[in-house]
Amino acid sequence: MEVTGAQALVRSLESQGVDVVFGLPGGAILPAYDPIRSSSLRHILVRHEQGAGHAAEGYAWATGRVGVCIATSGPGATNLVTALADAYMDSVPIVAITGQVPTAMIGTDAFQESDITGITSPVTKHNELVTDPARIPAAIAEAFHIASTGRPGPVLVDLPKDILQAQTTWSWPPSMDLPGYKIPGAPEGSLIEQAARALREARRPVLYVGGGVVKSDSAPAVRELAELARTPVTTTLMARGAFPDSHPLALGMPGMHGAYAAVAALQECDLIVALGARFDDRVTGQLASFAPKAKVVHVDIDPAEIGKNRRPDVAIVGDLRTVLTDLVTAMRAEIDANGAPDTASWVTLTDGWKRSYPLRYSQEAGGPLKPQHVVERLSALTGGDAIVVAGVGQHQMHAAQHYRFTKPRSWINSGGAGTMGFAVPAAMGAQIGRPGELVVAIDGDGCFQMTGQELATCAIEGLPIKVLIFNNGFLGMVRQWQELFYEERYSEVHLGTAIPDYVKLAEAYGCVGLRCDNAGDVDSVLEKALSVSDVPAVVDFRTHDAEGVFPMVPAGHANDDIVLGPEFTAAEQQAATRKEVI
Amino acid sequence: MRTHTLSVLVENKPGVLAHVAGLFSRRAFNITALSVGPTSDPKVSRMTIVVDGDSTPVDQVHKQLEKLVRVLKVTELEPEEAIERELALIKVRVNPDLRAELLDVATSFRASVVDLNPDTIVLEAVCSPGRLDALLTQLARHGTCELVRTGMIAISRGGETITDDMDSAPPELALTH
Ligand SMILES: Cc1ncc(C[n+]2csc(CCOP(=O)(O)OP(=O)(O)O)c2C)c(N)n1
Ligand SMILES: [Mg+2]
Known about the structure:
The structure holds two protein chains of two kinds.
Chain A: E1 2-4, H1 5-15, E2 20-23, H2 30-37, E3 42-45, H3 49-63, E4 67-71, H4 75-78, H5 81-89, E5 94-100, H6 116-120, E6 126-129, H7 136-148, E7 155-160, H8 161-165, E8 167-169, H9 189-201, E9 205-209, H10 211-215, H11 219-229, E10 233-235, E11 250-252, H12 260-268, E12 271-275, H13 281-284, E13 295-300, E14 314-317, H14 320-338, H15 344-356, H16 371-382, E15 387-390, H17 394-402, E16 411-412, H18 423-433, E17 439-444, H19 445-451, H20 454-461, E18 466-471, H21 476-485, H22 502-508, E19 512-516, H23 522-531, E20 537-542, H24 570-577
Chain B: E1 3-11, H1 16-26, E2 31-38, E3 44-52, H2 58-67, E4 71-77, E5 82-93, H3 99-108, E6 112-116, E7 120-127, H4 129-140, E8 144-149, E9 153-156
Antiparallel strand pairs in B: 1-3, 1-4, 2-3, 5-7, 5-8, 5-9, 6-7
């Protein structure tokens, strides 16, 4: 059948099973917007293309499906770059479709021309400038295949205007031409057996669970493995929710602002089983002194992650879903043959750490409102059942630390890139991907002002997301670093709490606006926000401006230098530093 | 400097060279030479990349290259198992008193004279990069005034070929996401 390139694009997206796209039109992509009108695609008109990118990410995080965003050439496309870079760092499967100037004008500095494939090549898993309308179906099919398989990531397809306007013949499915695209097959069984043996023999093992566990939907197998092997579990910032925080073997989050028990367990363990985690510097601290006594079993789908930062003793390249299933089976066999692992004294030790050095803060009645208290109340009121989306900064760390996660895909954030402005648009994408579920963005006052205009989109689309602005009047995380490492010389971190007036702003955007400045009102204000069902509810929480995030391992330091923070006595800090290990 | 040689087969498509070069700058990999040319298959190009092994983790270079969608195959060639060649064109100023000596040097390196002028000659040399460096040292006394090198190309010794274990089957088509 004869169609235009634009029709081929829209049909390809439909055939690919896409239900929603986030975008904003312009000259070069105009031809595609005509067939979108009469298609089955739901198009969400964002207010800024960065919002389209993060919304596609939020959708992908929440659903496990590929998120799609569309922009025009030039500035429309470059506005997507931050979201693409974010998706690349966090391995989020999204497909970006951009318009381009007509092929004959490429290279002439034509109006709204930018070399978007050149610009995005370091921040996409793959990209392509399509120069033949007949290739559109294959280019789209390949983009979805590449985005969603192996280690997921963003893919960009750039479509010149004349290619969208040209006539071509429609047929589906196209045959993909990806001779160089490799997805690792099943690893050798002997490696799985080695891993199982190492786990059974270890006296002080830890499962170091990363984002790969969420992406491969293998959280249930992790739980089975942990219980079989009687092994404590840490969940990274990318993996919060992959193992329930209420589980007796849960140690919480490791890393720079990790729970003491999680940080200490990694330092003192004799075996790390890394599952879809990448030994990121925010987890390891100073690499040379990280987990000095540990053997390492590293499972990842990306061969380039193996040995990049830490040399493993057992390297397993493969899909976690199948590897974990096999590992659980191998572990059972290992236990049947040689008995259960002996980790009892290790678990007692880590339990002691959890009790002695919990996440601690103090909310005084009548005192300043503590951000941790808001997170804790939200956690209690929602029973750990909300989809929590965070911005970047202190509020993000407080959310990751204090929300009691119960299930995977209930925590969405910008981990690797740390992109301020992620929360509101990502929450919008998550809400569209999972309508009827409770989506709560915990955002900073700084972050909110970067992408808050998507409240307009959410209000018009009737998306009842909750946006909890932790309004401390500061770029709080930067302020904390200036407090600790620049002798309290605060430079350009003060935002002020009054401007803008977030309640009025929310109302101007057609949302419900609420304010809370004391601990006593937190529950009632949260309940009011949670009860709004047709538009977003925005809460201006006036949180303590001098609150820090603790524990903290100062950047570049060894994890052994962990600072518990002002809520602990000098004696406690000393005891924590001088930990006695069997 | 310890160098490593990677032979890389890539799809002959626009932007592939930029992708590969971009990877090196993004990952802070130091390369000392890169050469590209066609192969017997018009859809495939071959790159030879020489990596500075002192400053760059070669294993990472190898793995990151393999992740590029348009890269078909990466192999590392060990110097003792490979034939390494580089072509250079060298313009040398000729001092009439040393003309004979200059031509002797050229002969002993099997470099041929491809352009001859009253006060300059152009030599063409094809040899291993190490030998080429030695030739250039010799010529320096005479006054090398212009030099162009292709960058090294290399091929394995013996019967093995780079395409031996290549899987040419197309990937399975996934229609759902
Ligand atoms: C786009 C971007 N710019 C700058 C930074 C550096 N940065 C990290 S956290 C932070 C402060 C965020 O302030 P706010 O949103 O108010 O959160 P808070 O730390 O106060 O909770 C800044 C500026 C960043 N991560 N992203
Ligand atoms: Mg703030």
